[in-house]
Design goal:
About 30% of the residues lie in helices and about 10% in strands. It has about 100 residues and is of the alpha+beta class. The chain has one domain. Strands 1-3-2 form a three-stranded antiparallel sheet. The chain starts with a helix and ends with a helix.
């Protein structure tokens, strides 16, 4: 039996990296310093927890996450934020992102 992950190929997609806001935590930024360099620090009064410390999408002048390369692969895949790790291929959000971007 195939799973939703088998049905959806992420290697030529990137829809999730350009449809929904993406935030990184302090822990994510400690593991991947580029998050601090390229993301925007979220003001303290907007933070409800340590889970939202940096915004990496949307950012001014970028149409995708700061780490999505032209080939639709992530520059920081091995150290990507936890929220990205939890985003599952074939999930309702995945399907919605693909729909918004016109990807079957």
């Amino acid at each position: 039996m195939s799973s939703p992950i088998d049905k959806y190929d992420c290697t030529d997609c990137g829809a999730c990296c350009q449809c929904f806001p993406i935030f990184a935590s302090e822990d994510d930024a400690a593991k991947e310093p580029k998050i601090q360099e390229e993301g925007i620090r979220v003001d303290n009064f907007l933070r409800k927890s340590n889970l939202v410390a940096y915004r990496i999408y949307p950012l001014p002048f970028l149409e995708t996450c700061a780490f999505l390369k032209e080939d639709k692969l992530c520059r920081i895949y091995d150290t990507r934020p936890e929220v990205c790790r939890k985003f599952l291929p074939g999930s309702d959000q995945c399907i919605e992102a693909r729909r918004r971007k016109g990807i079957a």
